[in-house]
What does this fold into?
Amino acid sequence: MTIVPFTKMHGLGNDFVLLDERRMPIPIDPAWVARLADRHRGIGFDQLVVIDEDPELDAHVRFFNADGSESGACGNATRCVARLIHDETGQDRIELRTGRGILRAVRDGDAWSVDMGQPRFRWDEIPLTHECDTEQVPVDIAGLPRPFAVNMGNPHAVFVVEHLESLDVAGMGAMLERDPMFPERANIGFVQVLDRQNVRLRVFERGAGLTLACGSGACAAMVALVRKDLVDGKVRFQLDGGELQLAWDGINGVVMTGPTALSYTGEISAEMAPDAP
It folds into this structure.
């Protein structure tokens, strides 16, 4: 059995276990990921991040949700990987290959900025079950407007609401994540506009649940709000875990800036190792 070293990091409380396949091959099995994500019997995390060599870029990165399912993008985790590689190499510009495509991160003082790429709006790119107006997806819940759907490397449905704190985000998110309109499930965001430069956001992430912060969810909400002309091109997002800065010009990639933190390093015991029975 193999003992596997790991690094625990977080971005605004959105927490990750990072595994480095550049050092050793690690067999990734969804059931093992879910076992490791258990906060009582494993390590506990919102997402598992696997870093590997890339012949052209600084690294190849894969993201796995706490239930073992794979995701194409994770904004907070991307910043953490960039910070980790910076600590190794001293580089202030990092290029990563992900399921989302190539993501570029730039050091900004103690924070990191990541260009999360252009949003995808077509119903079959998100994806939705059938063609419809993706800015008014026919998901009808009493007391909620219809959501704005967009793909930011993973599918998002954004509800623009007036009184966020009064909503049962965890309960509604768990239900809406699996709505029949979302064949690959969806991240469910609830956003309240405070003014044109400040908003409040909470996100129920598919495969992870209600998290303290969701970077791709903030990007999706930014896109929805800009398209609805409810905010300007640079906005401060208040999440449960802290603040992110979002910028989008309506054409190019969505740029997200925020902090990272190294929690601790450790070893996954042979008893919990991926090849353990």
Observations:
- The mean pLDDT is 95.
- The domain at 4-116+260-268 is CATH 3.10.310.10 (Diaminopimelate Epimerase; Chain A, domain 1).
- The CA atoms of residues 166 and 190 lie 11 Å apart.
